[in-house]
Amino acid sequence: MHQRKSDIFLSLLAAGGLIVCLMFLDATVSQHFDRRWVEDRREIVRVLTLTDLCLFTEARYTRHPSMADLHTPFQDHPMALEHFPSGAIMAVPPHLQFQEKR
After folding, report:
1. CB neighbours of 58 closer than 8 A, spacing ≥ 6?
2. pLDDT tens, 16-69?
3. What burial class does residue 36 get, using C-beta atoms within 10 Å of its C-beta: 0-12 exposed, 13-18 middle, 19+ buried?
4. Confidence (pTM)
5. Is the dihedral of CA 52, 57, 61, 65 positive or negative?
6. What residues contact 73, with CB distance under 8 A and at least 6 apart?
7. Contact at 8 Å (CB) between 64 and 54?
8. CA separation for the pair 33, 29 (Å, rounded)
9. What's the rounded Cα separation, in Å, for the pair 32 and 41?
């Protein structure tokens, strides 16, 4: 028996829709079961007074932008080009931007 292309397409579309529904169901169930784990981690962060989330793993000035200092991106020499990809993605924190005096 030969199936039409439209039947195959509708079958794949239904299977894809079912997979998306199962993904949402899994996210809901996981969120319910992980709630206690998240609360435990939140308490650890509060007790240990941990700082912000690590955004990138490359250079120390991209790992934690609020803790960066003025010379870190140019640690090799003042005219050094940015050699970490995350430096091109992340904006310079406002407290490190050059302020022109008027």
Report:
1. 84, 85, 86, 87
2. 999 999 999 999 999 888 898 889 888 888 888 776 666 666 766 666 656 656
3. exposed
4. 0.41
5. negative
6. 59, 61, 80, 82, 87
7. yes
8. 6
9. 15
